[in-house]
């Protein structure tokens, strides 16, 4: 099947920036992130060129899989080991990459919330402020903090589902 360059370009235009941020947070390199995103978009288009429902989640899963594949590929390459690296543990590294990917996904999801919802959520769940402390810091009533946090969590769940994160 010949590649529909316009369809691929539209997919890249609509989803490329978010996917690059996601990949860059995991691989650390702008060029490597760009390569991964391009590969993911082409793969997804080849497998399902007419798909629009759930496309973003499918793209995120494909990017994540490519990141994991790249990590595994690099882990198989011969390495120069010095005396400090004798305790290298691949299981630990696999856990570390999963934690890193989780953080990147959460950061991307939080960026999609409104500023007010994000501030309330971060104050209560990340900084562990009480509702009263968060209300004072944000300059809003206690009920507003509770409401913002409720709707922020609801929006966050929806965003994470869209990104392909399963509960």
Give a quick rundown of the structure.
The protein is 75% helix and 0% strand.
Structural features:
7 helices; about 170 residues; Arc Repressor Mutant, subunit A; mainly alpha; 2 domains
Describe the protein's architecture and organization.
- It is a single chain.
- The chain has helices spanning 5-27, 30-47, 55-76, 90-111, 115-126, 131-138, 142-162.
- With 167 residues, the chain is an all-alpha fold.
- The protein has two domains: 1-97; 112-167, Arc Repressor Mutant, subunit A.
- The longest helix is centred in the N-terminal third of the chain and has 23 residues, at 5-27.
- It starts with a helix and ends in a 5-residue tail after the last helix.
- Mean pLDDT is 81; it is low at 83-88.
- It holds the Pfam family Sigma70_r2.
- Residues 11-77, 109-157 form the RNA polymerase sigma-70 region domain.
- Keywords: DNA-binding, Sigma factor, Transcription, Transcription regulation.
